[in-house]
Model the fold of this input.
Amino acid sequence: MSCIELNKGFTMKEALLNAETAIESYSPNQVFFCPEESHFYSQCLEKLVLKNCADDELVIEFGAGDGSPVINALLKTQFKGLIHGYELNPVACEVARSKIRQYQLSRKYVIHNTCFFKGLESLPANYLIANPPYLPAPDDNIYMPSLHGGIDGATITKKLLSVDCENVLLMISGYSNPKETLEYAVSQGYKVVDFMVSPLQFGYYSSEPKVRRWITELRKRQQAFYSQNIYFLAGVLFKKQGSNATPDLTDELIKVMTVL
Ligand SMILES: C[S@@+](CC[C@H](N)C(=O)[O-])C[C@H]1O[C@@H](n2cnc3c(N)ncnc32)[C@H](O)[C@@H]1O
Done:
């Protein structure tokens, strides 16, 4: 995951959101902190989900983190529905709730300090959104265990694709077994209806020696794709097959994600 310098394209409100996080000065081992990645997730939310939502849509989010990606996207759209964000980390939840109050978004974004999979039954949502933990490693003894995505990095992503939500927006990394993940989505009845891709540099979490060594191993097994300088992160909008006439872009996305 990339943690390089703040993107120059931030608006004033976004800059404020990021500045607050910096002032709180939590260690990146306490609260997920990757401005480049969170900003890209926010752009994907805005363009692929919130701008296309009808008035009364219900959205559920796995892993809200400090809440800034959803808050940034809400500030740029006229979304009138409700987003329930689930986050295991109590410190991240407090930061997110404080930002939500500050931006007066309490009627649009609610944070639950509980495991996403426990909160599921009661909420038949129109959209499931997530920048899920996707760090591949042999075990979760890494800087931030809650970012562990299983042996190939795709375990939680696949679990989210098994929830059976009609529309799913997920961030998928080129070093977390993207081809098998996309094939799994097809097996679960999904097609890719839209996507955005961004080049990112390996950052704090993915450069941890144990993780980086494991990613190198996955590359030999054709499960990780990256160059010396970058990897691709995709924001992917999945929809259940047959729901409309939109073409399936799965094959095109597999080509993009495995090109490096
Ligand atoms: C990659 S971070 C993304 C945070 C935020 N969405 C962002 O993009 O900045 C993944 C988040 O998922 C949270 N998480 C991991 N497992 C979870 C679970 N079972 N239920 C809820 N949140 C979880 C982690 O604590 C972490 O904050």
The mean pLDDT is 91. Residues 86 and 112 are 5 Å apart (CA to CA).
